[in-house]
TrEMBL record:
<keyword id="KW-0813">Transport</keyword>
<dbReference type="Pfam" id="PF01547">
    <property type="entry name" value="SBP_bac_1"/>
</dbReference>
<keyword id="KW-0732">Signal</keyword>
<dbReference type="InterPro" id="IPR022386">
    <property type="entry name" value="Chitin_NgcE"/>
</dbReference>
<comment type="similarity">
    <text>Belongs to the bacterial solute-binding protein 1 family.</text>
</comment>
<dbReference type="InterPro" id="IPR050490">
    <property type="entry name" value="Bact_solute-bd_prot1"/>
</dbReference>
<dbReference type="InterPro" id="IPR006059">
    <property type="entry name" value="SBP"/>
</dbReference>
<protein>
    <submittedName>
        <fullName>N-acetylglucosamine/diacetylchitobiose ABC transporter substrate-binding protein</fullName>
    </submittedName>
</protein>
<dbReference type="InterPro" id="IPR006311">
    <property type="entry name" value="TAT_signal"/>
</dbReference>
Length: 482
């Protein structure tokens, strides 16, 4: 899955909470409620935690060195090797501990029965199309508080707590409505518009900063027989990776905050209307690869790596995920989305970047200390570098790139983050309201509009209706920017 980069300053913690890249890998999104209703009632009363071990300088979380650890990892764009390597470190430290490691793409369907039975794994990478709804897990007290991990000394510097080694905003992203930390986002994702620098150069064009210039580049590409845009048509919740930060650039980040807060008429803001109309223009002018609405994420990425399309909204996991079909001279690059014009509230460079790969420890885990120690190991400089080298993506650990030759996409992502500076946005819909963001806004609204089946005005009306329904739904916990 996704990950990438560093940056930003301090605009108030609520604003900066970095968002997780929910879901983006897999095939069809599974509606979240089936898991949640079951999970909410699940009990089994299995509060049989393993005994604590002896706390020491080398074992600050008092891990029981003889207790087994049950670790389930989402097997997606990042593969499994990085986790296997970190497990080896854990087993080296606790030779009597047996780690049961299960990679899967079926997170929800394979884990639901275990949550229901009160026997969940100790550590879960809750990602992919079958991701469990984090807002509901938190709301139903299904997760353990990770504050002990955050307050533990880091592996590399015992004088530094783990919380002080994280990229800005990552810790806050794991908080929902208070100080407790429920999720550790391990990867770090840069979202934006991805392209081949070689292809752009062949058009004698630069990446466009305004929408008029974007349309000019699109016209050039179309003349040369290249479709200007494609996207994951079957998973149109990829479109927000460039559309949401464009909305913030045009109208200010408070527009996205209002959307996250499910405020009445938030989607009717002029900036939303302007950006929807801009994207709809891509459809109207024939600037989207023919057949895109029927393509999944892999098919759209493959068409793009084969040179059939120029621009693709995506996250930084794409460099690893599309590696098999990406030509050696593709020269992968990413940019923040184009804005409208000079009246935009935020400068060009405004982009979405955030934590990805959400790791959780269930409240009924038998070995929560071992799970947190495994995460502490993964947040060391060695494990972080290993991840970055092997999957071409950054981690939540603030550093870990010294001495590594960055791949073209990663290098471009780091440069984009530097350009963005303070202007990083982190929409929270993706982790606060997974079903709303993916199925309703993504598939039911944006997907229909980009396929030409809804006008921008109709799409906005429909999406505002979905948001209003969610706001009135007492069965889900509601969250707000502080």
């Amino acid at each position: 899955m996704g990950s990438t980069s560093a940056r930003n300053g301090n605009d108030g913690v609520g604003r900066r909470d970095l968002i997780k890249r929910s879901a983006a890998l897999g095939l069809i999104s599974v509606p979240a409620m089936s898991f949640l209703s079951a999970c909410a009632s699940g009990g089994g009363g299995a509060d049989d935690k393993v005994d604590k071990g002896k706390k020491s300088k080398d074992n600050p979380l008092a891990v029981n060195g003889g207790a087994p650890l049950d670790f389930v990892l989402f097997d997606g764009g990042f593969g499994t090797q990085y986790a296997k390597d970190a497990i080896k470190v854990y087993e080296g430290k606790f030779p009597k501990a047996k780690v049961k490691f299960t990679p899967t793409q079926k997170i929800q369907s394979s884990l639901q029965p275990r949550f229901n039975g009160g026997n969940p794994p100790d550590l879960i990478d809750n990602s992919g199309a079958e991701q469990m709804d984090m807002g509901v897990l938190v709301g139903k007290d299904q997760l353990a508080d990770l504050t002990p991990l955050m307050d533990a000394p880091s592996v590399d510097d015992p004088d530094k707590k783990v919380r002080d080694t994280l990229r800005p905003g990552v810790l806050e992203m794991g908080q929902f409505d208070g100080e407790k930390v429920w999720i550790m986002y391990y990867a770090y994702t840069v979202y934006g518009v991805w392209y081949s620098q070689k292809a752009l150069d062949s058009l004698d064009a630069e990446y466009p900063e305004t929408w008029d210039d974007m349309l000019k580049v699109c016209a050039k590409a179309k003349k040369k027989g290249i479709a200007p845009w494609t996207y994951a048509g079957k998973h149109p919740y990829y479109i927000p990776f460039s559309l949401y930060p464009m909305i913030a650039k045009v109208g200010g980040r408070e527009v996205l905050d209002a959307i996250d807060n499910l405020e009445p008429n938030a989607w009717k803001h002029p900036a939303v209307k302007a950006c929807f109309e801009a994207y709809y223009e891509l459809y109207k002018k024939g600037y989207i690869l023919k057949g895109t609405p029927g393509l999944d994420h892999i098919q759209s990425q493959t068409a793009w790596t084969e040179g059939k399309a120029l621009f693709l909204p995506n996250g930084s996991w794409v460099e690893n995920e599309a590696a098999k079909t990406m030509p050696d001279d593709f020269d992968l690059a990413v940019s923040a989305p184009s804005g409208l014009d000079s009246s935009d509230k935020l400068p060009f460079g405004t982009m979405w970047a955030s934590g990805g790969e959400p790791f959780i420890v269930p409240s009924k885990a038998k070995n929560p200390d071992g799970a947190m120690e495994q995460l502490r190991i993964m947040l060391s400089e060695d494990s972080s570098k290993n991840f970055t080298k092997s999957v071409k993506s950054l981690t939540a650990f603030d550093g870990g790139t010294d001495g590594i030759e960055l791949t073209p996409g990663l290098k471009s992502a780091v440069a984009a983050l530097e350009k963005a500076g303070e202007n990083i946005v982190n929409p929270r819909l993706q982790d606060w309201y997974v079903a709303l963001q993916k199925e309703k806004i993504g598939v039911g609204g944006l997907g229909e509009m980009m396929a030409g089946r809804l006008t921008p005005a109709e799409a906005i009306k429909k999406i505002q209706g979905y948001a209003d329904e969610a706001a009135k739904d007492d069965s889900i916990k509601h969250y707000k920017h502080q």
